[in-house]
Design brief:
This protein has 198 residues and is α/β, with parallel strands linked by helices. Helix content is 42%, strand content 12%. It has 8 helices and 5 strands. This is Dynein heavy chain 5, axonemal.
């Protein structure tokens, strides 16, 4: 089958955004050490769109409803984080997306959730689902880190030491990510290192 099928796939948020539409939420199933918030926010900035995030939990439905109504009208992106803690709102969200008459073309609803047995099946069926698993191995870790580096970041400092230092920080970040897998043998206490720590 070839090397193409052996290499890990790097998540491409822009490709998922192009595949989606305003009435189709994008759901990220969370795993330990993965949080797509930074990637989603940077894509929104790159596209020149407003971005708002709400961490779901007790009493956050009011804020989520307000953010949703505002972004449906104005065309921004909303991210509802940890939706396994606000399952009651998920059915209301799907109903609103399917029944609202007018919805802005650039509106997108991003959702992060842990796997939960009571998560609404109808919402899962109507959405694009993805997972953002941490990379396996040093090579995959470096590839993932480098996929987030932009040309602007490479050229922001003109000193010749900048790019080797960027490599060293990226390498150290990949080592830290790998050590996390060994639990108490890697660290004295568990740390939640993820891509936001780079």
């Amino acid at each position: 089958m070839g090397q193409h099928y052996a290499d890990p796939v790097i998540l491409n948020m822009e490709a998922m955004w192009e595949e989606s539409n305003p009435r189709c939420p994008l759901i990220c199933l969370l795993t330990m050490g993965s949080d797509p918030t930074q990637q989603i926010e940077s894509l929104a900035k790159q596209k020149g769109l407003t971005f708002g995030a709400i961490s779901m939990g007790q009493g956050q439905e009011v804020h989520a409803r307000k953010l949703m109504n505002q972004n449906i009208d104005e065309g921004g992106w909303m991210l509802l984080q940890n939706c396994h803690l606000g399952l009651e709102f998920m059915d209301e969200l799907l109903d609103k997306l399917l029944t609202v008459e007018k919805i802005h073309d650039t509106f997108r609803c991003w959702i992060t959730t842990e796997v939960h047995e009571r998560f609404p099946i109808s919402l899962l069926q109507a959405s694009i689902k993805f997972t953002n698993e941490p990379p396996q191995g040093m090579r995959a870790g470096l590839k993932r880190t480098y996929s987030t580096v932009t040309q602007k970041q490479l050229e922001v400092i003109s000193y010749h030491q900048w790019q080797p230092m960027l490599y060293a920080v990226s390498f150290m970040h990949s080592v830290v990510q790998e050590r996390r897998k060994f639990g108490p043998l890697g660290w004295n206490i568990p740390y939640e290192f993820n891509t936001a720590d780079w």
